[in-house]
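We modelled the chain as a single entity of 440 amino acids. Its sequence is:
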Amino acid sequence: MFRFAITVVLAAIPVAGFCQADLLTLDECLEIALANNLALVNARLEVAAAGDNVAALRTRRYPRLDVQGGVSNNLQDQGYTFEEGVWGDYPMIGELPAQDVTINSASGSTSFLSAGVTQPLSQQYRLALSIEQGEVREDMAEEMVRLTQQDLVRIVKQQYFDLIQTQSDLATTKDSILFYVSLNELVLNYVAQQVSLEYELLEVDARLARRQLDASAQQHRLDTQRERMNDLLARDLNTPFTVQELPEPGVHPTDPQNAVATALSQRPDIKESKLKVKDAELGYDIKKAEYIPNLDLRIRYAKLYDYELIPDTHAYVGLHAKWEFYDWGRKKKELASKTSMIHQAANSARETENRVVIDVHKSFRAIDQAEGSVRVAMLSQAASRDKLRVLMNQYEQQSILLQDVLDAETELDRANNEYTRAVLSVWNAQAELDHAIGAN
């Protein structure tokens, strides 16, 4: 009757403790996080910004249209004097001018209006390279989104597994509290019957108090972990929820070589590292293209107002060239810097590939280790549970000491925690393998 009462109450504790919050599955967590996480939102904004930058670069290849205007006021009148014959002496006409002529500038305000079209010509090659570089950086931003997604998935899974662990620890601690409450009643009766000693009752009380303190600490840790998860999901930190116990881990890939090949083909950080090499190479080509002189086709029309001395309209079409023929070695040094950046990017790409291979192999080893620990923990848990059952029956019959029961309960508590941790270690290892391969 004593053991039956304990079993009924222990079975009701987890439900009573978590019935106030909604159940949130791992798939639901991932779905919410991938839709709302702020870091992922910012990464997507980077892609949009890179796309806008490429669109802006494309407009630089088109003709530039501009309009200029101005109004000025002469602070001091100016006069121009042309002396007699300054322009020559011509037969049948005579000297020009025939006498000294003075022309005064217009007084008051004058204004002008000018409109023009400038079409870059020789710069088209450099602009095409800049646009291609912008597209590469847009691709890099997209790979960063994928990388952020995969990191987010891994972090959400880790946080979810930590929640399961703490929630399981708390449930186990509550089971232990109820066990010590019932054991306290039994020992109290034995003390009254002078079968047990007072210090044994105090030992049970001390262990009960310690487990109550453990439950409080675990509840606080659980509350903190819930807040962190809510932050990852970009929702109110105080949103209550519980997590779902996971089933036994599924079958993982058994061929490390295929996993490595998959990782090398789809990991976003590898693709990003290769794009960085291409970005550095384009940067070199763009800098080298600066040796090409700038050549523009220009068309301009200007209209002057309140001018009497010179023509009031002006229009022209022509080619405008600009060439910096000597730069004191600046471009040469800049090209050398770009070459170093290419080598640096190539080295980083090789380093990234090596790190990916190491991550995949490490994840396979971690899974094998974790699966072995599950088998060990399962056997230890079954042995500890049966041992406590046998010793409790013997203690009720007063054939063993109380200390044997207390040690057996501590051993079972440790075995339960080790089993939960072992199962979650497999899930964590599989999550690391998914991340190493590059799966979303």
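As a brief sanity check on the tokenised model: The longest strand covers residues 109-120. Residues 164 and 326 are 69 Å apart (CA to CA).
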